[in-house]
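>> received
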Amino acid sequence: MTSDRRLRHDRRPSAAVFVLWLAASTVLALMARSYLEQLRFADADDVIRLLQVRDLLAGQSWWDVTQYRIAPPEGVAMHWSRLVDVPLALVMLALEPLLGAARAELAALVIVPLGILLVIMQVVGRLAWRLFDRTTAIMACLMLLLWPLLLVEMQPLRIDHHAWQIAAVAVALWAISWREPLRGGAVAGLAMAIGASVSLEILPMAAAFGLVLLLRWAVDYRQRVWLVCYMQSLAVSLVAIFALTKGAGALNGPAYCDAITLPHIGFFAVAALGTSVLGRMQRVTLALFVLLFAGVGALAAGAMALAAPQCIASPFGSLDPLVRDLWYANVREGTPIWQQDAHVIFGKSLHMLLALGASIALVLRSRDWLRQWWIEYTLILLVAVLAAVMTHRSFYYVGVVGCVPLGWLAASMLARLRRSGGLLPSLGAAIGIYLVLMPSALVNILAPLLRDSEATREQVASAPMRSSGCGLSVRQTDLARLEPGVVFAQFDIGPFFLLNTPHKVVATGHHRADAAMRDVLQAFTASPDDARAIVERRGANYLAICPELAEARNLEEYGGPQSLMARLLADDAPGWLEKIPSQEADAIKVWRVRSDGSPSQSR
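>> returned
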């Protein structure tokens, strides 16, 4: 938007972005080939997502998202939206006649995440082209591919909801740059409604877009249509998605606070109605304008507080203290940045500050309406930065918003490199481009100074799920061929039993099974005698652990040397457990729960 794009002679970047996506997708697919063959998922949530799609295709009701093989016999009502299941199921159904069920499933695990990546890159490229030129668009997409954590969410096998939220932010950001407020506001509202229906994690970004459109209204009364259309679209879309994915049964169900439910819809409905009413009023003073919108916000929050006061607080606020301390506090993606390791804090902060600095530079060098746009853009980026500071997983919002100003910065340095005549200026520009594209290089140089040695040893001793042999061991272990039963297992390996065996599990790392999660944690950290009572009460037939994972070491440390986990890690199982020998060199350890309590035949 530095010039009228209709007067430009440079071509749209769509083809170049597609080629860049094709190259990145090829690399990602080749890197994931061995993981695909063995179904070695990077995260347990991806496993549960696949199981949810399998259950849907096997005949489970569209309205029923209960995972009945977790915490049997009641099961657990998952908080995930059917929206994410739809493209996976459609790809599987379309390809099954050609490839067979198994290969169609593998194809879906590749096509869907890479397809979302293509959408995001095309949207980002189009936005950067509108704002600058073709070179900047390509550099912005390159920044997107190099942004830490972001590409991870769209690699093959990564089928959980995060990529959808990144795409929703990209589309909303693109939409508010359009010339037509009716269409732009409506599309931005729809994008945020889809993102919020997938997960409430996106709500800070939905608020950021609303704040920016409110600023437009405050600056120019004629621009009020943007916010009115945004809020109306957001509220109506939430109602429609709720009706399509939840059904009438959700009207009488429990008011969960970890997903969009009626209290949340009430909040947005009141806010949209209030905004629409104010949009029909004549221009007022700035003080009255702020006061009126504060009143609308108070009414919306009050309606939600009356309907479900528990939803005003964090959805994790009601967790059992043991579950919160031993599980949620160790979920790194949900913790604030200051609880990360020093090298992570430094690296993430450097990326965010660089993106924010580039956006502020664009504010300072712009004039008139363009400066207003970059002020709005910087405000959205700032909200994304604050969200990332408070919650580590929100760092990819900074990436999808910050890649455009960083693309401009890289393109500017590239132009300077082309113009520079001397060796030193050329070298300086080249180094500058490299640091903009990959500022983590500086972090890697300083990593030995920033990384705590004890923490490093802990990381080495505790492998992440994909690189450990635990998930694969579940597939290969003799337990898969035993009589179906209930497995009492660590949270991280529970989903792999559901994926690769006919067994059920007591709990996984999904907070709606709060009571079952507490039982698992309490049993592993209690004495063997106390643990036995919990295991038998849960009707478990087998017990399994993965010593490689940090989860096992954390439970051992919390429970002490006499805890059940400590005994199991030392291969000193109590008498009521019988070791199940395996023909494979498995990373996982499995015992049968002996009903008579006689001494174990093998330790």
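>> The radius of gyration is 26 Å.
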